[in-house]
Design goal:
The chain is α/β, with parallel strands linked by helices. It has 2 domains: 6-268 and 474-489, 3-Layer(aba) Sandwich (Aldehyde Dehydrogenase, Chain A, domain 1); 273-463, Aldehyde Dehydrogenase, Chain A, domain 2. The chain has 15 helices and 24 strands. Helix 3 (80-96) runs antiparallel to helix 5. The longest helix is centred in the N-terminal third of the chain and has 22 residues, at 113-134. The relative contact order is 0.13.
């Protein structure tokens, strides 16, 4: 596919048709109350759309049609091989509409257009392809009972599934939940973040075009606390699967307990420790990869390796390399294909991230590069890549999820201190260790309490491996065949085949 120039991307953006209504029962609908909210682009502050702002009445309608679709079997009753064909057609349509989807993603949340096209859209289409292809290859079981009985263990869809997703990877986080939920035969209600609702609406439109029946895949837009609470408390939602902050994840646990004990999957926050040891010979490579991973997607990642724990003997060399790499990340026009750092998602989040700079100085850390906003004359939301050095693990910058292009360097004196520091966090999502010593690699990877441990790399990814965390980083796993288990119920059917005496 021919790559476009900055001029061509801007022309496409100016001509873009934006649908801003919800998708319920295969129809574009506004909120019952008539309410909307304004979507503005963090790229340059331009107005994008007045997006439908749902309330409890809209949630009730979406759940009702999703339940009806599930009960009449228009999707849940289809053979897995039939669902596979539709999901793979959906993936093809996502690829065919790559530029439009990438533009919606970039304009709505600020990431670079090169990342939106080559990473986000590609990964989304691959996800629907993968789960579509997998679903008719997952078998039920027969238990090893005595000959007088046959015990069948079968998997049935949960029923009505709500997916509540964040704004940092709007389509990708949605696909990690929607694809396995649809593949297993559920009806889905997707609630995108209010900061990034537009690509979700377009995805639902393409799903209808692919042949997913009306009522099976619905999108409800609106205020997170209001719509999320309504979904969480709804007695006819069988499962709710969320990616976002730990605090909101705790709210969903409360809602589940207060309603029907709906199943939950919670992929929550992170403050990922990234350990560089003196036993890794290529210190510059470790530091370079760490910086790239920390500044990717403007640092707006739950797996961002924002706590860099460095053995003191290589600390100076690591910091020098980090500063040099940071110079290559200049916030630029996200519609320029050469831009490698786009805009923050909105003005409110930008302000919150910038508060950490003053806090770091107050706590005694050194701001060795960055620490300021950029491109303020554009009307957009940009922050220069920032590195805090000589931090201690009890500082706010080492304990709280910043979700911006900010990297905290914490010197330590030993491997044991590195492990202790890594685990001194309420989170346990991702982590890494850099060492050429196999024994040390095993010791650290076994010692870290986290769902993902990278050894001599960072942010490597594949749909075949599960994604999720320990401690307050959540419950359950996205990706891989393990994700399918979240969206099904296990049923045992015991059949007595012995004759009567």
């Amino acid at each position: 596919m021919t790559e476009l120039s900055i001029k061509q991307w801007h022309a496409k953006a100016d001509a873009l048709r934006i649908q801003s209504k919800m998708v319920i029962d295969g129809q574009f609908v506004g909120a019952a109350s008539g309410r909307t909210f304004v979507s503005k682009s963090p790229v340059d502050g331009r107005f994008l759309a007045d997006v439908a702002c749902a309330g409890e009445e809209d949630v009730n309608r979406a759940v009702k049609v999703a339940r009806a679709a599930y009960e009449d079997g228009r999707w849940s009753g289809r053979a897995p091989a039939e669902r596979k064909l539709v999901l793979r057609q959906f993936a093809d349509l996502i690829r065919a509409n790559r530029d439009e989807l990438a533009l919606l993603e970039t304009l709505d949340m600020g990431k670079s257009i090169s990342d939106s096209t080559s990473i986000d859209v590609r990964a989304v289409s691959n996800c629907f392809d993968w789960y579509g292809e997998a679903i008719d290859k997952v078998y039920d079981e027969i238990a090893p009972t005595a000959k007088e009985a046959v015990a069948m263990i079968t998997k049935e869809p949960l029923g009505v599934v709500a997916a509540v997703v964040p704004w940092n990877f709007p389509m990708l986080m949605a696909s990690w939940k929607v694809a396995p939920a649809l593949a297993t035969g559920n009806s889905v209600i997707l609630k995108p973040a209010e900061q990034s609702s537009l690509s979700a609406i377009r995805l639902a439109e393409l799903a209808l075009e692919a042949g997913i029946p009306p009522g099976v895949f619905n999108v409800v837009t609106g205020d997170g606390p209001e719509v999320g609470r309504a979904l969480g408390l709804h007695m006819d939602v069988d499962g709710l699967f969320f990616t976002g902050s730990t605090q909101v994840g705790k709210y969903f646990m409360e809602y589940s307990a207060q309603s029907n004990l709906k199943r939950l999957g919670l992929e929550l926050g992170g403050k990922s420790p990234n350990i560089i040891l003196s036993s890794y010979r290529d210190t510059k490579h470790a530091a370079t990869t760490s910086a790239h991973s920390a500044f990717f997607n403007q640092g707006e990642m739950c797996t961002c390796p924002s706590r860099l724990i460095v053995e003191r003997s290589v600390h100076e060399e690591v910091v020098e390399t980090l500063i040099e790499v940071a110079k290559s990340y200049t916030p630029g026009d996200p519609l320029d294909p050469t831009t490698n750092m786009g805009a923050m998602v909105d003005e409110r989040h930008t302000g919150r991230v910038m508060e950490f700079v003053d806090q770091a100085k107050t706590d005694g850390a050194d701001v060795v590069t960055g620490g300021a906003r950029a491109r303020q004359d554009t009307g957009g939301c940009y922050i220069n890549p920032t590195i805090f050095d000589n931090a201690t693990n009890d500082m706010r910058i080492a304990q709280e999820e910043i979700f911006g292009p900010m990297l905290t360097v914490i010197p330590v004196d030993s491997v044991d201190e590195a492990i202790t520091t890594a685990n001194d966090s309420c989170y346990g999502l991702a982590s890494a260790v850099w060492t050429d010593d196999l024994t040390t690699a095993h010791k650290v990877s076994k010692g870290i309490r986290a769902g993902l441990v990278y050894v001599n790399c960072y942010d490597c990814d594949d749909l075949t491996v599960p994604f999720g965390g320990f401690k307050e980083s959540g419950i359950g796993r996205d990706k891989s065949l393990h994700a399918l288990d979240k969206y099904v119920e296990l049923k045992t059917t015991w059949i007595n085949v012995a004759g009567r005496d």
